[in-house]
Amino acid sequence: MSTLTRNDVTGRIMVALDYANAESAEGLLKQLEGIPCYVKVGMQLFYAAGPTFVASLKDRGYKVFLDVKMHDIPNTVKGGAESVTRLGVDVFNVHAAGGKYMMEAALEGVDKGLAVGATRPIVIGVTQLTSTSQQVLNDEIGLAGTTEQAVIRYARLAHAAGLNGVVASPLEVTAIKAACGDGFVTVTPGIRPAGADIGDQSRIMTPAEAFAQGTDYVVIGRPITGAADPRAAIEAIIESIV
Ligand code: C5P
């Protein structure tokens, strides 16, 4: 049980629109009509449906997390950040592995793209992808130490660069908040309601557990999008938290 209201909780659920085209995404949105959740547009949908689809989501009042994980030279990321800020997204992300200067460049791009009176987007850093195993981290990527150590180091770097928060596993929320402060936003995928199919996620928590850890937003895809009744699925998730 938590002190969060139904509206608080709903606004902190980011539904991953992992679809190949706008038509499929619209099908889900229709089923969730009237539920004021966030929607997450990742690279599959963005590369297919593009800025027009995102602009149409914004026109209809959706809060949008554009999950395109920018990682390039600082000048290019600055330009990308400027473009997505002009698009009016509420949250977007860049890879912390791009370094402090690259993350600072993203914030400069936001400054450039922000219209007068518009709300600043929340810019978050991708720490270590939840799909990265210890072996891949050490032997392929070439970083020493544990995944949690890598995540905390990236979180500190993102914080030092002035970013608003990070994407991480819910298992790392406590350590991130301890290192970077309670106000440093955490966005956590790897969420599975009790009894749900785990799929390719490994380090998972239930939505209620993730909020109990103090996460700010949970990202949920297949437990909602793959359900026979997506509306019933998100309602059950909300009920499990409030
Ligand atoms: O279907 P599922 O709930 O596993 O979807 C999780 C979403 O979060 C996907 O869109 C995935 O790309 C995204 N994500 C993730 N792990 C990260 C970063 C993003 O699962 N570290």
UniProtKB/TrEMBL annotation:
Signal peptide: none
InterPro entries referenced in this protein's UniProt entry, alphabetically: Aldolase_TIM (IPR013785), OMPdecase (IPR014732), OMPdecase_AS (IPR018089), OMPdecase_bac (IPR047596), OMPdeCOase_dom (IPR001754), RibuloseP-bd_barrel (IPR011060)
Annotated positions binding substrate: 18, 40, 67-76, 130, 192, 201, 221-222
Reactions the enzyme catalyzes: orotidine 5'-phosphate + H(+) = UMP + CO2
Broad enzyme group: lyase
E.C. number(s) listed in UniProt: 4.1.1.23
Pathway given in the UniProt record: Pyrimidine metabolism; UMP biosynthesis via de novo pathway; UMP from orotate: step 2/2
Keywords for this protein: Decarboxylase, Lyase, Pyrimidine biosynthesis
Protein's GO biological process: 'de novo' pyrimidine nucleobase biosynthetic process; 'de novo' UMP biosynthetic process
Active site: 67 (for ompdecase activity), 69 (proton donor), 69 (for ompdecase activity), 72 (for ompdecase activity)
One Pfam family of this chain: OMPdecase
Molecular function GO terms recorded: orotidine-5'-phosphate decarboxylase activity
Every Orotidine 5'-phosphate decarboxylase domain range: 12-237
GO annotations of cellular component type: cytosol
Subunit structure and binding partners: Homodimer.
NCBIfam families assigned to the protein according to its UniProt record, in alphabetical order: PRK00230.1, pyrF
Function: Catalyzes the decarboxylation of orotidine 5'-monophosphate (OMP) to uridine 5'-monophosphate (UMP).
Family: Belongs to the OMP decarboxylase family. Type 1 subfamily.
Protein name, as recorded: Orotidine 5'-phosphate decarboxylase
Species: Paenibacillus oryzisoli
Lineage: Bacteria, Bacillati, Bacillota, Bacilli, Bacillales
